[in-house]
Write a structure and sequence with these properties.
Elements: E1 5-13, E2 19-27, E3 32-38, H1 49-57, E4 60-66, H2 89-108, E5 113-118, H3 120-127, H4 130-133, E6 136-142, H5 154-175, E7 177-179, H6 180-183, E8 188-190, H7 191-202, H8 206-210, H9 212-221, E9 226-231, H10 239-247, E10 254-259, H11 283-290
Parallel strand pairs: 3-4, 3-5, 5-6, 6-9, 9-10
Antiparallel strand pairs: 1-2, 2-4, 7-8
């Protein structure tokens, strides 16, 4: 642990009373706006801990958290199975993400926060409640996109039909949840999340195409600036996917940064590598700079 950063496990509740787990990384002398890390689908907050500690050492108060059913927010009654957990992607965005924004703002006495959304985490900002969107000073979208699976990068595109058209539809109703951890696919997901995410991924327009009445209002209400980072070797999200994500929030001013690992002296980054220790010397300072609203 970095000597000028204190780490505090937090427990907080969503508006419906669901308990959630987070970790607050606070520098001794905070000098920059607070940052909320919203993780990728089924990726627990502990994955982001090294980056969060490093970012806090740069002067940001940082909060990482797990949405319900994931990581440290997976309740004891759901340790063996997520069967019976009635939560979908909108629940995560409008209940859990909202609670995390409010918690970080309260803990840092800040009226607004910066959001670093990794993959699905970027969608939380776009689909959350208007009051929560109003507290977002900037969204740094990392390796995120909004499109059907046929537009994904080749490695993920080849696996998608098996997961979205076979394993998901067969196993989710049978077990009451998606056992992705045992299958080596994404991770365990609540049944409503898997059904909704699969439906979105099967539609060329992702959520905006599959569930326009559910998400378009929030997506079109977004006004926060977005810096979107796309990696040339991402095995899931292509540049086209990221451009579609930005297009889905037409009133949010945005800039797209296309990053080649070789330009940073890295052999690879991929979909998850931006938060691994190998990126600390070269990519992490870039992401810290992109979190600036100036």
């Amino acid at each position: 642990m970095l000597s000028n950063v204190q780490t505090h496990p937090l427990s907080f509740r969503a508006a419906d009373g669901t308990p959630l787990a987070g970790t607050l990384f606070m520098p001794t002398h905070p000098a920059r706006p607070p940052v909320l890390i919203a993780g990728a689908l089924a990726v627990p907050q502990r994955f982001y801990a090294p980056f969060a500690q490093w970012l806090a050492a740069q002067g940001h108060g940082v909060l990482s958290f797990d949405v319900r059913g994931i990581g440290a927010s997976r309740r004891p009654e759901h340790r063996r199975s997520l069967r019976g957990l009635n939560a979908d992607l909108i629940t995560w965005a409008q209940q859990d993400f909202t609670a995390a924004v409010e918690t970080l703002a309260r803990q840092t006495a800040s009226p607004s926060v910066l959001v670093l959304g990794h993959s699905l985490g970027a969608h939380h900002a776009g689909m959350t409640l208007p009051g929560t969107q109003a507290r977002i000073a900037l969204l740094l979208s990392v390796a995120a996109g909004a499109s059907g699976w046929r537009s994904w990068a080749a490695p993920s595109r080849r696996r998608a039909p098996w997961m979205l058209h076979v394993a998901g539809p067969l196993l989710t109703p049978l077990l009451g949840y998606f056992p992705g951890r045992r299958l080596g696919m994404v991770g365990d997901l609540p049944g409503p999340v898997m059904r909704q995410w699969s439906r979105w991924c099967r539609h060329p327009g992702f959520a905006a195409g599959a569930d326009p009445a559910l998400v378009l209002g929030a997506l079109h209400a977004a006004r926060f600036p977005i810096t979107a980072v796309s990696f040339t070797d991402d095995e899931a999200m292509t540049e086209d996917c990221t451009q579609r994500l930005l297009a889905s929030m037409p009133h949010a001013p945005s800039v797209l940064r296309r990053v080649r690992p070789q330009d940073l002296g890295l052999s690879s980054i991929g979909h998850l590598g931006a938060f691994r220790a190998s990126a600390q010397a070269s990519l992490w300072p870039c992401m810290a700079a992109w979190l600036s609203t100036e």
